[in-house]
Amino acid sequence: MVVKDCGNHGNPRKKLYWRIFYVSAAFVAAVLFSILLVWLILRPKKPHFVLQDATVYAFSLTAPNLLTATVQITLSARNPNGRIGVYYDKLDVYAAYRSQQITLATRLPASYQGHEDITVWSPFVYGTAVPVAPYLAASLGEDEGTGTVLINVRVDGRVRWKVGTFVSRNYHLFANCPAYINFGNKNSGIAVGSPIKYQLLMDCHVDV
After folding, report:
1. What is the pLDDT of residues 114-139, one digit of tens each?
2. Which of the ends of the chain has fewer CB neighbours closer than 10 A, N or C?
3. CA distance 147 to 141
C-alpha cells in the first residue's frame, strides 16, 4: 500500500516565524495602546506663557526704513499639568512688528519643568539697523506719532512631554505675546541710553 504525502503539514520553521511575528506584533500593539490610554487619561495641557514686563533700551526708526531696537523682556511659563513634566528644547524668542521679525532670535536655555512648576527667563532681544518694508516703516512712524506701538514677542521651539519614565517625541511650540509700548508721543521713539520699563502681564497665545 502506498501512502501519498499531500504536503498539508507545512514547514515547521515557517510556522515558527509566523508565531514570533504575531507575538511581537501583539506586544507592540499592547504597548502602544497602553501609552495611548495613559495619554487620554492624563490629557496634557499646553504650557501657559505670560509676558511680565519689557525694558526698552532703544527703539527708533531712521531713514531709509531702518529700525534699531533693544529690549529686555521677562517671560514666564507655567506647566499646568499635575502629572506631566515638560522639556523645553531649542526655544528661540524674538520681537516682531505686524508679522515682520524686527530683532535677532535669542536662544533660551533648555530646561525641564516639573508638575505645575513655573520657569522665568529674562533675555535681551535686539536688532541694529534692521531693514523694514516701506509700508511698515510708514505704519510704524504713525504709531510712534500717536505714542503707542504694538510689538509681538514670539517664542518658537520644541517641547517634549514626560509621563513617568516615558518621554514623548518633539512637538512644535509657538507662543505669541502682545506688548503695547507707550512712547508718550515721542515721534522719534526711544533713543539709546534712555531705558524705560513697562509692566505688562500679558497672556500669550500658545500653539502646540
Report:
1. 999 999 999 999 999 999 998 988 89
2. N
3. 10
How many CB atoms are closer than 10 A to CB 134? 10
The set of cell numbers assigned to 6 is: 499531500
> CA 14, CA 197: separation in Å to the nearest integer?
74
Chain centre distance of CA 166: 21
Distance CA 125, CA 83 (A): 33
* Alpha carbon distance 117, 101 (integer Å): 30
C-alpha distance across the termini of the chain, in Å = 76
Whether the CB-CB separation of 99 and 150 falls below 8 Å is answered with: no
Cβ contact 157:80 at 8 Å = no
What residue ranges in 111-207 does DSSP mark as E strands? Answer: 111-113, 118-121, 124-131, 148-163, 166-167, 171-182, 196-203, 205-207
**pLDDT tens track for 183-207:** 765 555 555 457 888 899 999 999 9
* Other Cβ atoms closer than 10 A to 126: 19
Sign of CA dihedral 180, 183, 186, 188: negative
